[in-house]
Amino acid sequence: MSDQSTIVSTIDAALVRRLIAAQFPQWAGLDVRPLMPGGWDNRTFHLGRDMTVRLPSAASYALQVEKEQFWLPRLAPHLPLPIPAPLAKGVPGEGYPWPWSVYRWLPGEAATDGRIGDLTVFAQDLARFLVALRQVDASGGPLPGAHNFFRGGAPAHYDAETRRALAALQGRIDTDAARDVWEAALSARWTDAPVWFHGDINWGNLLVEDGRLSAVIDFGTSGIGDPACDLAIAWTLFHGTSREAFRAGVALDAGTWARGRGWTLWKALIVYAGLPGTNSAEAEKSRRVIEEVLADHREFG
């Protein structure tokens, strides 16, 4: 969640053209088109045929620019799928207050259900990517903090927010079962050395070509620590055979899955409860995710 008062509401193609012309005149003649959907944390634009421009929408997201610029080129050689490649870093200007990035364009479309050929194969491919990411040397990597909203840390960081959502949802969901899931997440501690995680594995950050997973984007919440936060897609996209293929492929222990259920439940609860800073349009989806998480806890918890 972010400080809404810091969000810049007008980030449009005209602003991007001005920034490019002022800071990267070699690209000033290229077409600028907004990508749809353009994202919430960042606004993304197509620059010419082969580049994208990505501008943070709030101060809290601007912390991620330097991290991605530094770490993505170091992660990329070790991963089985393409990830964003930074080409240039912009600075504040033209009335825009934060650093921003130019990336090489990655082909593909967001991984909605209709674009994925075989969901079980997709789950296996994603699991292989996450295993490879965990195996990259984590020395000097970014620990959990404000730059990634404490992904990779303990779910307890959001304990007060979770309990506030549970109180607001009394009578609308099985809050006793949800509390059991949350308590299990709090009691399952990560005690191993920190490993790399993505931090926001969802359909919008996974690209598909010809029905197969083709790239992973948006490493703004990445870092080193506990990889449990990368398991949320098990309940937000996968089900049945695909979920079990993902579970087998990521090869993580029961405690990590307990924390993964906790991270997923926290987000779904605050959205369904309509806490400040959440998107009401996602409320019904969040209710279904809550039900999936509770069912998974009954079976595996």
Which ranges are low-confidence, i.e. pLDDT below 50, for 5 or more consecutive residues? 1-5
Helix and strand succession?
Answer: HEEEHHEEEHHHEEEEHHHH
| Rg, nearest Å | 19 Å
- Largest sheet at a glance? 5 strands, antiparallel
Terminal CA distance: 28 Å
Please report the total strand number as a whole number. Answer: 10
- Overall mean pLDDT score? 94
Number of helices: 10
The helix-and-strand class reads: alpha+beta
Helical coverage, percent range: 25-40%
Strand content of the residues, in percent? 5-15%
Strand order of the largest sheet: 1-2-3-5-4
Specify the overall morphology: globular
Give me some keywords for this one.
single chain; 301 residues; 3-stranded antiparallel beta sheet; 10 helices; disordered N terminus
Could you explain how this protein is built, in words?
It contains ten helices and ten strands. By secondary structure, it is α+β, with helices and mostly antiparallel strands. Helix 4 packs parallel to helix 8, helix 6 crosses helix 9 and helix 9 runs antiparallel to helix 10. The two termini are about 30 Å apart.
Question: Can you describe this structure in just a few lines?
Answer:
With 301 residues, this protein is an alpha+beta fold. The protein is built from 10 helices and 10 strands. The model is unreliable at 1-5 (pLDDT under 50).
Helix and strand topology:
Elements: H1 13-23, E1 32-34, E2 42-47, E3 51-56, H2 59-62, H3 64-75, E4 86-90, E5 100-104, E6 109-110, H4 119-135, H5 159-168, H6 175-187, E7 195-197, E8 206-209, E9 212-216, E10 223-225, H7 233-236, H8 240-250, H9 254-272, H10 283-300
Antiparallel strand pairs: 1-2, 2-3, 3-5, 4-5, 6-8, 7-10, 8-9
Helix pairs in contact: 4-8, 5-6, 5-9, 6-9, 9-10
